[in-house]
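Let us work through a complete example step by step.
Step 1: write down the sequence.
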Amino acid sequence: MIYKPVTHVLFDMDGLILNTEDLYTIGFQKIASRYGKEFTFDLKCRIMGQQTREFAASIINGLDLPLTVDEFLKETRFIYEELFPQSKIMPGVERFIRHLYDNGVPIGLATSSSKETYDLKVKNHSELFNMLEYKTWGSSDPLVKKGKPYPDIFLVAADKFRDKPAPEKVLVFEDSINGVKAAHSAGMQVVMIPDPRLDRTLAPEATLILNSMEDFVPEHFGLPQYTQRNL
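Step 2: predict the structure and record it as tokens.
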């Protein structure tokens, strides 16, 4: 397949840069277990990419929990303060971000997380995230009216680049079905690196689906290729 060359790159965060989707699962299951419920992978797939209050409502409704959205979020806050600082960078991601940064490619973050939870997640990875000059926190940004699968977050994030690239010049990296749909709706190409359990046929909008960022070949999208120093 021939891909269109791009000039700018946007990254999702949870499950793409950091392994926080695994941490979310642990936290949500702790709450669900109190009421004899199971936080299933199917439900996880449906909420991935949603904004904070959206996914809280989805879990409450999906598991029929006797909680309000505010009560659910209050419970998760204590869990996140313990778990999120333990987040790890996903394979191949640091090398790729550093490569783009060193080559002057404009790169940004487009996460549905709030600024508050973002700060917990990146606590031990500030150097890497400082390379992502343009950041959009979907749950904290009033310009992001609707969460993924709506395109709002990627359109808002792309508009923060100094030279205002056309959507077709922006490449998005995502791990969720909702994120892929959002990027596609925004008119952008999107590389998906999903949970290995995901049925890939559920993401037909993805431009490319990979097992790991380690498998991505930058020059296929017109980006600078890795040098021997990067390998």
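Step 3: interpret the result. The radius of gyration is 17 Å.
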